């Protein structure tokens, strides 16, 4: 693992997120910034993909179940070279390539269109099941928001994943503790997450979602498990990397103005 490169890429990813949201005047910075390091690790260290063949059958699959964090995914995809960086300016604009949520029909590198919370992991389970049927060695990775776990569909999908022994599925919970209406525990308590997932038949792993050594160790542990799906509960900070956005629920779905954009980029790149 080239940790210095991952740190450098993650800074670019965060910078892209801020710039594209300022350009679009709308979007979701908080949850995009909190999962930026995990996405960087997946695309630069973990997943078997081919930038020149986005639909390569032997690729690993990725699902962004928390689809509102699309800016983070788009940012990583453009850093990898799936599409030109200029396209980031089209976010949420009529006729542009990049919609407010991931679109698998038009955006190279996006495996599943997502947006309705809870449905992403259901798609991931179906994909993992299909790959098993094909005797494929490919894996499926899915990132969920912690507030998203309040959706019952998540647990139906999780029950199916364990029932079918989908050890080719790794779910990652972006556990930043906040959602659009405030703290998760005040809106609808989701803890203890480890016991819940364990009870549903998952191998449970915890990590620091902003420490690449911790992230790397967690994914290596997931690879060792056979006969059951794994979930990595990654402790993160909503708005990570921008001081005035960190741990602030108000930045769930609010674009920065010019001064805020300049300050954010300065903090990210310093």
UniProtKB/TrEMBL annotation:
<keyword id="KW-0479">Metal-binding</keyword>
<dbReference type="GO" id="GO:0016740">
    <property type="term" value="F:transferase activity"/>
</dbReference>
<keyword id="KW-0786">Thiamine pyrophosphate</keyword>
<dbReference type="InterPro" id="IPR029061">
    <property type="entry name" value="THDP-binding"/>
</dbReference>
<comment type="similarity">
    <text>Belongs to the transketolase family.</text>
</comment>
<dbReference type="InterPro" id="IPR005474">
    <property type="entry name" value="Transketolase_N"/>
</dbReference>
<dbReference type="InterPro" id="IPR049557">
    <property type="entry name" value="Transketolase_CS"/>
</dbReference>
<protein>
    <submittedName>
        <fullName>Transketolase</fullName>
    </submittedName>
</protein>
<dbReference type="Pfam" id="PF00456">
    <property type="entry name" value="Transketolase_N"/>
</dbReference>
<dbReference type="GO" id="GO:0046872">
    <property type="term" value="F:metal ion binding"/>
</dbReference>
<feature type="domain" description="Transketolase N-terminal">
    <location>
        <begin position="12"/>
        <end position="263"/>
    </location>
</feature>
<keyword id="KW-0808">Transferase</keyword>
């Amino acid at each position: 693992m080239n940790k210095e490169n991952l740190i450098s890429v993650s800074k670019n990813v965060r910078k892209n997120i801020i710039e594209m949201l300022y350009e679009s005047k709308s979007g979701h910075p908080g949850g995009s910034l909190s999962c930026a390091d995990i996405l960087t690790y997946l695309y630069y260290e973990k997943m078997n993909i081919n930038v020149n063949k986005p639909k390569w059958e032997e690729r690993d699959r990725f699902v962004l179940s928390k689809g509102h964090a699309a800016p983070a995914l788009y940012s990583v995809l453009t850093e990898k070279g799936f599409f030109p960086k200029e396209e980031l300016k089209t976010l949420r604009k009529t006729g542009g390539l990049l919609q407010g949520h991931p679109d698998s029909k038009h955006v190279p590198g996006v495996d599943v269109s997502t947006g309705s919370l809870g449905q992403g992991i259901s798609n991931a389970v179906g994909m993992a099941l299909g790959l098993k049927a094909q005797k494929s060695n490919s894996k499926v990775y899915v990132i969920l928001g912690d507030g998203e776990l309040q959706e019952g569909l998540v647990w139906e999908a999780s029950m199916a994943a364990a029932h079918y022994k989908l050890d080719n599925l790794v779910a990652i919970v972006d556990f930043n503790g906040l959602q659009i209406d405030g703290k998760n525990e005040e809106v609808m308590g989701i803890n203890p997450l480890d016991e819940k997932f364990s009870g549903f038949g998952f191998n449970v792993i915890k990590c620091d979602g902003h420490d690449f050594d911790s992230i790397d160790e967690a994914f290596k542990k997931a690879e060792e498990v056979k006969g059951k799906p794994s979930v990595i509960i990654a402790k993160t900070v909503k708005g990570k990397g921008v001081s005035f956005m960190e741990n602030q629920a108000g930045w769930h779905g609010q674009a920065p103005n010019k001064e805020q954009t300049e300050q954010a980029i300065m903090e990210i790149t310093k």
